[in-house]
Each structure stands twice: as structure tokens, then as C-alpha cells.
Amino acid sequence: MEKMKILLLENIHPIAKEKLIEEGFEVELKSYAPDEAELCTLVKQYDVLGIRSKTEVTAKVLDSGSHLLAIGTFCIGTNQVDLATANAKGVPVFNAPYSNTRSVAELVIAEMISLSRQLFDRSMLAHQGGWMKSAEGSKEVRGKTVGIVGYGHIGSQVSVLAEALGMNVLFYDVVKKLPLGNARSVSNLEELLAKSDFVTLHVPETPQTKDMITKKQLQMMKKGSFILNASRGTVVVIEDLAEALKSKHISGCAVDVFPVEPSSNKEKFHSPLQGVSNVILTPHIGGSTEEAQYAIGLEVAESFRRFLKVGSTSGAVNFPQVDLPIHQGAHRILNVHRNEPGVLGEINSEVSKFGANIQAQYLSTDAKIGYLVMDVEKANAVPLSQAIGKLSRSIRTRVVY
């Protein structure tokens, strides 16, 4: 284990490096997101890769790092990783689906109030020497209706906070969800758009959510309403949103994610929304609080530890789920193989050849691969593991302890 090398990119919180070093791993932390060519070179030197939202782990990168054992996205999203290719190569991908939900929800609430009171425009004018003391166009959020698209970890947190402010809460989700408090679900997106004073988006990036909000959906919204996007940049057609704002059909927006984002803080940012009144633009900071980044660092580092030292894949987004206790006095063999008929029989045949005593065995599969965890007597573990690894349908095999 002490020889395993882990690469963490994009200024992942140092607590992750600290915890992994405590576990005996060699860890390097870099502050930027390398492009594909550089990442293809880098991954050849490491066993595990940790990224945030900017780094793209493509099939080419996975081919270059064919020995990679695991990948961690130190954020909620995993669309920056080719999950299908990682699965086929036996590489579990872990994320942090819970740690920054409060940070995003608080930002959304703050932005709703800011938009309703035109705070950013008035503050900017004051910085420039202007003085806009007027109640015109400035409203309370109390009594207004917020429509939440995507009622997952973040959407449900927004629901609770918004209701505490005295807002009415509607939500729409493609999966049936239990409402919190007095929130009410609606049957379709169109109904939500038509009834909401604020629409806030909290959906993953999928083919179904790409361009979910276009000119057509914006016209369905109430005249004078607001829209907020802290989900994924591909969900809203930015040009259509800019047009709806300039025509005054939409009174304001807050956007934290964009179709194209700078790869570093040194690169210039451009958007059709720049210069439009009552528009809040933030640089993808929804989950970027010190508390959230610390918690994410702990969460994914723990997933790495449990997988590398115990074989647990609990929480992996692209992998069969296995989470077993340690059996004292045994070695644990992990095997990833193609999910085809007869594979387990071949493996058990090797077990019989070596006369190995199996103390525990667990198999979990998905459509493409099978993941086998097997605890055997120590005397047989290494040669048995090598024999299983040579089977034609084995993808990767290792002994973890």
C-alpha cells in the first residue's frame, strides 16, 4: 500500500492529501486542471486519480492509465469522466454527493433575495458613485412561489430553506420524491414554469437535460419571474436567456455554470449575459465554501481508503456495489471480470486447484462486469490471485490484505 501513488488535481482540499498520507499512500497535489495530452502523460505515474469539475477523464486518458485502480471526483458531478470506459476497465469512480449540498442551497437562497431586491445592480452603482434609493422593482420573497427542477439532495435543501422564508414551494422531478414540509410536486415542467416566481435548476447533465431551458420554456415562465442555474452549464441555452432578459420577460437571473468555462483563473471569461441588468454571474462556486471542500476532501479520501485497503465499492457511481467486513486471518482477493456465463465456475476451478479454503465470497454484477470479493487462507492468496488474473475474462485482480 505504501507504494501506491495518488494524484490530486484542481486544488482539492489539503485534508484529502493529509488523510491519504496517514493511510500510507504517496500523494501529490496539483493546483490546476491539465488538458488531455498532459493528463495522458501524468496518469502513467499514478495508481489513483482525484479531480474536480474541470479535468476531463476521457477514454484516451483511461487507455493511457490502464493500470489506474480508482478515480474520485471531489464534487457531485461525474459527467467529466467517461464512466462506461472506466467500468469496462474495472475502474470504480467515486464522488461526493452530499458534502456541498448546503453550500449550494444557501447560495441559491441568497441569490433569490438578491435578484428580488436588485442588490447587485444597486451595489455596483453605489461603487461607481451612483445612488439608487427606490422601492420600485424591489420585492420581498415571502409569499412568492419557487419552483425547483430536480428534487434531489440540493433541491430538497433549497425547499426547506425557502419554506422557512415563507415561500411556497413547487417541485418537478422525473423520479417520484417525498415532499419535505409543505412542498408540492407538479406533474410536468410546463406547469412548474407557469406557476413559479422563481425557477431554480438542480439536475444532472444528461442527454435529457441538455438544452432543457430554451426560448420556448422561458416564454412559459411568468412575465417578471427569475431563473437560477447552479446545476450544469448545458441545461440552459444562454443566448435564449439573454434575449428573454433584454426583452424584460424575465426580470433577472443567477447563473453559476456555463456551457464553456475557463480552464483556470487566468483565462478570460465571456458570456452573452455580461452587461445585462439584474444578472448575477458567479464562477462555478456553488459548492465552493471552505466547509464544503473540507467535507468533500474527507468523503472521497475515505472512499479511496475503503476501496484500496478493503475492496469496498460502496458509493461508486459506475460499479457493482460491495461492502464487506474484514475477516481476520485471511487474505482478500478482488477480481473484476467480464459478466459472462461460466466465469465464476472458472474462478472456483482455480480455487479448487490450489486447495484454497474460502472463508467468504461475494459477487456483485452489472450489465458489463462482475466484481468478486473473496477471502481465503493466507497461504494460497498470492499464487491463487495470479492464476485468477490470467483467466481470459479477468479484467484486473489484486490482493488487498
Task: Please describe what this structure looks like.
By secondary structure, the chain is of the alpha/beta class. It has three domains: 1-99 and 289-317, NAD(P)-binding Rossmann-like Domain (Rossmann fold), CATH 3.40.50.720; 101-281, Rossmann fold, CATH 3.40.50.720; 320-401, ACT domain (Alpha-Beta Plaits). The protein contains 13 helices and 16 strands. The strands form three sheets. Strands 8-7-6-9-10-11-12 form a seven-stranded parallel β-sheet, with helices on both faces. The protein has a five-stranded parallel β-sheet with strand order 2-1-3-4-5. A four-stranded antiparallel β-sheet has the order 14-15-13-16, with helices on one face. Helix 1 (14-22) runs parallel beside helix 11 (290-310), helix 5 crosses helix 7 (153-164) and helix 12 (343-354) runs antiparallel to helix 13 (381-389). The radius of gyration is 25 Å and the shape is elongated. The model has no long low-confidence stretch (mean pLDDT 96).
Q: Topology of this protein?
A:
Blueprint: E1 5-8, H1 14-22, E2 26-29, H2 36-42, E3 48-51, H3 59-64, E4 70-73, H4 83-88, E5 93-94, H5 101-116, H6 119-127, E6 145-149, H7 153-164, E7 168-172, E8 184-185, H8 189-195, E9 198-201, H9 215-220, E10 225-229, H10 238-246, E11 250-255, E12 279-281, H11 290-310, E13 330-338, H12 343-354, E14 358-365, E15 369-377, H13 381-389, E16 394-399
Parallel strand pairs: 1-2, 1-3, 3-4, 4-5, 6-7, 6-9, 7-8, 9-10, 10-11, 11-12
Antiparallel strand pairs: 13-15, 13-16, 14-15
